[in-house]
Amino acid sequence: MHKIIERAKKEKRSLLETEAKGLLKEYKISVPDFKLIKNEDEISKIAKEIAYPLVMKIVSPDIIHKSDAGGVKIGIKNENEAKLAYKEIISKAKKYNKEAKIFGVIVSPVVPQGTEVIVGMTKDPHFGPVVMFGLGGIFVEILKDVSFRILPLEEKDAQEMIAEIKGYKILRGARGESPKDIEAIKRILIKISQLTMENPEINEIDLNPIFVFKKGIQVIDARIIL
User: Fold this and answer.
1) Are 211 and 218 in contact (CB under 8 A)?
2) Does domain 115-225 correspond to CATH entry 3.30.470.20?
3) DSSP assignment letter at 162
């Protein structure tokens, strides 16, 4: 069992966002730089490691929907703003759920907007682990434009998953837009298959959104449930 998963299981919780992103990095899945800060004094060190502007988010296994709790701040430009944001995030999180165990605040750089996609995994009672792929935003929320495959995935399975969604033309470069890095999407689908098969304690994975660029991808938000 992976040490990150073992620690979370001992504490009878799912992975924190910092742990989920750490696990993804070990599987060569690209995530923005991040740091967990546990008190206001640590903020002064941020600029040496992560460039402004920043995104700051609450880290708590008891607060899944961070935005609903007021636990997300975007576009923080300097140390003073970061300190104010830290206080506000912690305060609102405690009001939102007085029983929540708060581990701190995750700090990351603001990433330029890419084409949003979503990758997920869930355990089907009949088929076992199933991976899902689709475009993000309204495409997944309203149009339900997604594809599914039973694990493990091979490269041809990943290619078929990407090509069969209605939004595939957007990834190929519709209406004068530059084509997106479909090879990078294929790699992340195969890596999630590998991660799932090697760690059967994982019950659910939700990578949403993932920004896809002309070259490369970045997993902006990650949730892993044990």
Assistant:
1) yes
2) yes
3) H
